[in-house]
Design a protein that fits this description.
The protein is of the alpha+beta class. The protein has 3 helices and 4 strands. Strands 2-3-1-4 form a 4-stranded antiparallel β-sheet. The longest helix is centred in the N-terminal third of the chain and has 17 residues. The chain starts with a strand and ends in an 8-residue tail after the last strand.
Amino acid sequence: MAYIDGFVIACPEANKEKFIEHARTADPYFIEMGATRVLECWGDDVPEGTTTDFRKAVKVEPGEAVLFSWIEWPDKETRDAAMAKMMDPENSDPRMDPANNPMPFDGKRMIFGGFVPVVTLEK
């Protein structure tokens, strides 16, 4: 069964091209580790909510956009093995090293989690 890693990020709007380059550099590594799909989405219609919303979740500041991204894995086992390999210093990849590919956003405000799909509709 598929497994999804989801992310919500606040990124300075001025860093849009830097973010795209960061993703184009790092994301192929996830595919090499077994992911079937990676999507990086720049907020286009992200309304402010009354109680909660994406903006509040990542403490968006003026001049920042909300990004919503996910990685699709064939199953949790593939994802767990990939994450273990990525976190192993013996297997470090320069694309994932912040010194080589710095994050153009505040990683402390990124929220993320792993999800098991419970309903899938496809055409």
